[in-house]
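for the recovery benchmark. tokens below, seq after
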């Protein structure tokens, strides 16, 4: 009799669990599984989406990628070293990709063994259809001073403001040598949103290399998320650097080394990436180690425990200085604290440059938050100092600032200037729904707890 009651209870529990899972799946169906359809498209026979990325050679390698027509034909880059006047031709590899509603040919040319500290002009062509001329420059390798810009998720709406905002950011930081994006550069994997991405990057990405990582919006949703081949065909450094199906990449630039992970994958893929990261970090002799990953290792939404468990121990053990992250559509900065409370590395930042803002938690372990705006960051490496500055993108006002100082064999020191900059935490709930009211409540509680920050 007792056995029967126990079995009955267990059966009831399983049925309730299955029902609860069914209700949750129904409620979250669109968020977990729905892919907005792609509108049919045709690609013209002139080169489009021309952009510069880094290569897999060394600091002085660049890849140029573009799209043109539906079938791959003979394609090339004409490259002119403007210092020497030498012109060379680099043949491109072409591959067609059928997406859900159209087809296009994607090209990539590897510009390896470029002369350091030189200015180059280039144009791309497919058969006799050529692009306009662009130019870029290379720098002396292994130097100890350089700077770049970083943006988290961009995910702009169609006809959005990204191009205006990024052009202004580069105008104010003309020495920035490249742009890093922490994933979700594109709202959804459709031709129309990719077009928006390249409209947003126009007159920037043809001149300054773009280093992008994968975000969840780059994937087609499903029980197992799927990254279209279009992504690595566009960011073609992944074609050479990926490990299995893992979009990982590393690059040494000046006295820094960048490590790029694909945090969107399932457990066993992340495990492979963990081994890759451990291997690369243990071999690194770079003074500055910078990790770029889409999902924050310390979440401000209570998520990403698997990513944290996989990677954060390595980040701490191998002395990563800066972790640039996105995904959670707010600004947050967290320094590591020693036992006596002094700040040290790793420094973690979450940032975004998207019109969408998310509702976050205000965890006490973070030093600073920002909501209801969009941001970009500048990173200046100057000998033994790495300076991180965050700007609010509309007014280009300084929002956060710190230096990481590493002198000789001393432990890293943080000079935190950002704590003296007031946080912007104004929020207007879009409706009376309880999740918005609760968020407003959390903001008020945070303001009361940290009056010195706001
Ligand atoms: Fe994301």
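predicted aa per position
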């Amino acid at each position: 009799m007792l056995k029967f009651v126990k079995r009955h209870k267990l059966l009831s529990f399983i049925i309730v669990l299955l029902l609860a899972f069914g209700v949750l799946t129904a409620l979250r169906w669109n968020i977990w599984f729905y892919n907005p359809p792609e509108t049919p498209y045709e690609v013209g026979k002139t080169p489009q989406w021309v952009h510069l990325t880094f290569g897999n050679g060394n600091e002085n390698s660049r890849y140029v990628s573009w799209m043109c027509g539906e079938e791959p034909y003979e394609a090339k880059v004409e490259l002119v070293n403007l210092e020497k006047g030498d012109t060379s031709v680099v043949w491109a590899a072409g591959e067609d990709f059928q997406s859900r509603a159209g087809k296009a040919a994607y090209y990539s040319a590897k510009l390896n063994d470029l002369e350091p500290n030189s200015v180059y002009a280039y144009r791309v062509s497919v058969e006799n259809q050529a692009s306009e001329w662009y130019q870029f420059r290379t720098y002396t390798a292994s130097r100890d001073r350089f700077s770049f810009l970083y943006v988290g998720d961009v995910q702009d709406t169609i006809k959005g403001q990204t191009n205006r905002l990024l052009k202004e950011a580069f105008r104010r930081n003309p020495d920035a040598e490249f742009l890093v994006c922490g994933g979700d550069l594109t709202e959804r994997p459709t031709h129309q949103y990719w077009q928006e991405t390249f409209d947003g990057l126009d007159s920037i990405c043809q001149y300054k290399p773009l280093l992008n990582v994968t975000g969840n919006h780059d994937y087609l949703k499903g029980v197992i998320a799927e990254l279209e081949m279009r992504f690595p065909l566009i960011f073609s450094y992944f074609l050479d650097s990926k490990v299995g199906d893992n979009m990982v990449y590393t690059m040494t630039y000046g006295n820094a080394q960048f490590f790029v992970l694909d945090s969107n994958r399932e457990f066993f893929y992340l495990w492979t990436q963990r081994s890759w990261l451990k291997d690369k970090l243990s071999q690194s002799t770079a003074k500055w180690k910078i990790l770029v990953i889409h999902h924050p290792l310390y979440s401000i939404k209570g998520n990403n425990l698997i990513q944290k468990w996989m990677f954060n121990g390595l980040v701490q053990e191998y002395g990563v200085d800066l972790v640039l992250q996105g995904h959670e559509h707010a600004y947050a900065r967290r320094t590591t604290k020693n036992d006596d409370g002094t700040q040290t590395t790793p420094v973690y930042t979450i940032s975004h440059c998207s019109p969408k803002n998310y509702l976050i938690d205000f965890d006490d372990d973070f030093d600073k938050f920002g909501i209801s705006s969009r941001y970009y960051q500048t990173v200046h490496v100057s000998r033994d100092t790495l300076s991180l500055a965050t700007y609010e993108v509309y007014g280009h006002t300084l929002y956060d600032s710190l230096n990481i100082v590493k002198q000789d064999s001393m432990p890293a020191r943080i000079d935190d200037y950002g704590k003296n900059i007031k946080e912007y935490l104004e929020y207007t709930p879009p409706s009376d729904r309880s999740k918005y009211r609760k968020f407003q409540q959390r903001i008020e509680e945070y303001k009361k707890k940290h009056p010195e920050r706001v």
